[in-house]
Amino acid sequence: MSTPPRALRLSAKAPSADALNPDLVDMARPEIPAGCAIVEVLAAAINPSDVKAALGLMPYAIWPRTPGRDYAGRVVAGPSEWMGRAVWGTGGDLGITRDGTHARYLVLPVAALVPKPERIAMASAATVGVPFVTAYEGLRRADLAGPGQTVLVLGSNGKVGQAAVQLATRARARVIGVERGATRYTGHASAQVEVIDGTRDDIAQAVLSMTDGRGVDVAYNTVGSPYFAAALASLKVGGTQILISTPERNVPFDIMAFYRRDLRMLGVDSLKLTASQCADVFRTLLPGFEDGSLQGFDVNDGSVLPLDRARQAYLKVLEGSMERLVLAP
């Protein structure tokens, strides 16, 4: 007897991590609203933002809802030209203001459908969304051009960090990574990546030494407050620091030094981008994934879990697991 289609369901935010236990409910295949399609979800990554949303840390979340932003699957209802096709994507609205991907079925606008390259496995494809959209938006807004530029990626072995490294090296920029307790980059790149141990006290001095005193064009700070001062001090005149997250909200800030060096800071919140807007980013990046210059993240077979193990997986992500944990609805 086959298992009925199921979905995770959160009726309200969890008051604590110990109380985080999404319901597993049966679901019927939804009706198709006008202009939409139905995707059967074959793989859905668990991002830190999914778990934070379940804990009520995303102010625009609507309850009750099904969590999950990233996915890979196949179209089972919708326009004839899309029927049966493998698709992938993400959305800042998914799992936040509309039901998300941690379910057997997902309703999407047709404008959000993007074909998945055959060369990328479903589980790996399901991990691409949030990291690559976040990395791309930051580098786009920071005016990444490529040759002649240097990009500093703080937290280079994390998911967004690796995506930023891939995009910057593909554009032929020089990339320097910063990783706590490590001096080696562990992900895919189109060129060599030099790595500074993030535990040292002289990160900015090391960066300036590596750039003959000029500094970097872009500092992509995926960690936030711990590296904030070092990132600013590593910038060249006119450089940009990108921020996407932080453990501490407030840091000391020298306004005079900031404006005298013509610096910029960019905040990137991919939750502001709908599934259709994220699809535009995927279409831009699609040639890179098709030719192999961009790659999804490796996912171990043991990291692909059924929905009934979602609670354990959520808690592992909350604890900072470096595994790419993926649900298989």
Output the keywords.
329 residues, alpha/beta, Quinone Oxidoreductase, Chain A, domain 1, Rossmann fold, six-stranded mixed sheet, six-stranded parallel sheet, globular
Task: Explain this structure.
With 329 residues, the chain is of the alpha/beta class. It has two domains: 6-128 and 296-327, Alpha-Beta Complex (Quinone Oxidoreductase, Chain A, domain 1); 131-270, NAD(P)-binding Rossmann-like Domain (Rossmann fold, 3-Layer(aba) Sandwich). Helices cover 25% and strands 22% of the residues. It has helices at residues 48-54, 122-125, 129-141, 159-170, 203-210, 228-234, 255-260, 275-291, 310-318, and strands at residues 6-9, 23-26, 36-45, 71-77, 86-89, 105-109, 150-154, 174-179, 194-197, 216-221, 235-243, 264-267, 304-305, 326-327. The strands form three sheets. Strands 3, 4, 5, 6, 13 and 14 form a six-stranded mixed sheet that branches. Strands 9-8-7-10-11-12 form a six-stranded parallel sheet, with helices on both faces. A two-stranded antiparallel sheet has the order 1-2. Helix 7 links the parallel strand 11 (235-243) and strand 12. Helix 3 (129-141) crosses helix 4 and helix 5 (203-210) runs parallel beside helix 6. The protein is globular. The two termini are 17 Å apart. The model has no long low-confidence stretch (mean pLDDT 96).
